[in-house]
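Run log // design_07
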C-alpha cells in the first residue's frame, strides 16, 4: 500500500546516501554556508576577523539538511563540514547553540577529521570531548554545543535531532563558551575564553 507524500510529510521509509570520501549526502533538502561574517563576533581576535572579511570573507563551514517528517514524528539530519584553518591562533568552529526546547537532546557522529566538541550548561558546567573519526556523542538537553576543527583536513560530523528542538544562538553570541581552542606550540590547547575575562 502506497501512502502519498503531502506537505513534506511521508510515512514511508526514506533513505539518503552518504559519501564518506567527501562528507556529502544526497539528496538533501537545503544547504547553509557559514562565512567569517556569520561568525565574526565568535572569535576573540577581532583584528584578524576584520582583515579576513576585507580580503575574501571565507567559508568556515557548511551544513546540509534533510527533514524526515511523518504524520506522528519529526526528525532532522544534518551533516556539517568544517574547513581547516585558524583565525589568528583560534581554530575554525561552528557557532554553537542551545536548543530552544529545554527537553531536547542531539546525537553527533564524527566521521572525518579531528577536533573537539565543546559543551556547556547555562549554569557553567563545561566539558571538552576530544573528537576523532568514529566518535559518537550524545548531547543531553540543556547543554550548548560547538564543534572545533583542529586538524589539517576537513572535519565532518553527522547530527540527528528533533526538528522541534530549535536553535538558541543568543547566549553563545553574547559570551561564547568558557574555553576556546587555540594553537600553542604547534598543538591544540584549551584556554579560558578571553571574552569572559
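design_07 sequence
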Amino acid at each position: 500500500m502506497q501512502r502519498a507524500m503531502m506537505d513534506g510529510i511521508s510515512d514511508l521509509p526514506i533513505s539518503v546516501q552518504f559519501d564518506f570520501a567527501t562528507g556529502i549526502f544526497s539528496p538533501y533538502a537545503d544547504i547553509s554556508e557559514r562565512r567569517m561574517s556569520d561568525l565574526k563576533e565568535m572569535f576573540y581576535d577581532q583584528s584578524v576577523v576584520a582583515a579576513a572579511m576585507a580580503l575574501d570573507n571565507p567559508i568556515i563551514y557548511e551544513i546540509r539538511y534533510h527533514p524526515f517528517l511523518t504524520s506522528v514524528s519529526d526528525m532532522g539530519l544534518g551533516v556539517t563540514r568544517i574547513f581547516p584553518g585558524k583565525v589568528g591562533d583560534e581554530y575554525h568552529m561552528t557557532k554553537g547553540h542551545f536548543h530552544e526546547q529545554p527537553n531536547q537532546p542531539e546525537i553527533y557522529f564524527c566521521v572525518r577529521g579531528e577536533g573537539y566538541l565543546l559543551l556547556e550548561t547555562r549554569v557553567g558546567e563545561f566539558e571538552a570531548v576530544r573528537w576523532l573519526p568514529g566518535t559518537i556523542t550524545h548531547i543531553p538537553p540543556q547543554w550548548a554545543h560547538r564543534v572545533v576543527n583542529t586538524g589539517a583536513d576537513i572535519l565532518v560530523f553527522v547530527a540527528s535531532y528533533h526538528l522541534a528542538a530549535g536553535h538558541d544562538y543568543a547566549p553563545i553570541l553574547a559570551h561564547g563558551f568558557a574555553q576556546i581552542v587555540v594553537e600553542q606550540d604547534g598543538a591544540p590547547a584549551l584556554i579560558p575564553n578571553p571574552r569572559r575575562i
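The first strand starts at residue 17 and ends at 19.
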